[in-house]
Amino acid sequence: MSDNLAPRFSGFRTFSQPQILRLSGADAVAFAQAQFASDVAALADGHWHWSTWLNAKGRVLATFQLLRLDPQQLLLVCHDGDVETMAGQLRGFIFRRKVTLTVDATLAVSGAFSAPEKTGNAQIAVSDDGLIELDAGTTALPRCLRIGPATVVATAAEELAWRQSDLRLGLPRLIDSQREQWTPQQLGLDRLNAYSVKKGCYPGQEIVARTHFLGKAKRAATLLRAQSPLTAGQSVSHNGSDIGTLASTAGELALAVLPLELSEGDLGISGEVVTIEPLLDGLAR
């Protein structure tokens, strides 16, 4: 496990997938509060937290960092991209609210395997030139994100290293085929405090709350390691029977949705025995 906790590159690298969606206007916070599963209204200015957007059936459409810059301006850092589609769908719910949704292509997202210099935990640091710095790591795995001009472009190996660190910290990275397939409980988004069961209505809220309060969650995200690269959507077997599915993968690592209780026996994917690894705590904001 230790080899996966070591930095895979030094300095900041700009990633290819993350995209920024800006919500601005007098009703930006109210609009986000009604659409997203986190408690945006309780988030203080100058702070950020994880959030998720669900469909009406309580399935995850997207998971992202939600930054509250001020009372009328939010930034969504969508690490799996496709914000044009997301923005188009969200605009259908604006009605008469005073909010504007803009895909901000001027901003790039860069990361480093080091602790942030100017901030920590959920606070947002903004420099005089507008560069935003976020603490996106833990004590065990320090990481820093910067939002602003592009730096050195990440190689494929560096992108993979960052994506693997996301999975180790319990952050699922969903490809298109895995969107609208999983509840937030199944993806372990409670580990990130990415949804609320108390704040009131939002799409899918009734299903999320029912699952939480009635204790009906039967499956959860489990970190698996294989010897060869894995693919999202592959089945996981246990003692010869399929029991779960890979929801998010990064090389030989995967977050699989598996039963909460497993009996003795090997787990396998396409005939290869895989092992369970512990998830790292501390990414919640």
Description of the structure:
Helix content is 15%, strand content 32%. With 285 residues, the protein is an alpha+beta fold. The longest helix is centred in the middle third of the chain and has 13 residues. The strands form 3 sheets. The protein has a 6-stranded mixed β-sheet with strand order 8-9-10-7-1-11, with no helix packed on it. The N terminus is likely disordered. Strand 14 and strand 15 form a beta hairpin. It is globular. It contains 5 helices and 17 strands.
Topology:
Layout: H1 2-5, E1 13-14, E2 19-24, H2 28-35, E3 47-54, E4 60-70, E5 73-78, H3 83-91, E6 100-103, E7 108-112, E8 125-126, E9 132-135, E10 144-148, E11 152-153, H4 156-168, H5 205-213, E12 219-225, E13 235-238, E14 241-250, E15 253-259, E16 267-269, E17 272-277
Parallel strand pairs: 1-11
Antiparallel strand pairs: 1-7, 2-5, 2-6, 3-4, 4-5, 7-10, 8-9, 9-10, 12-15, 12-17, 13-14, 13-16, 14-15, 16-17
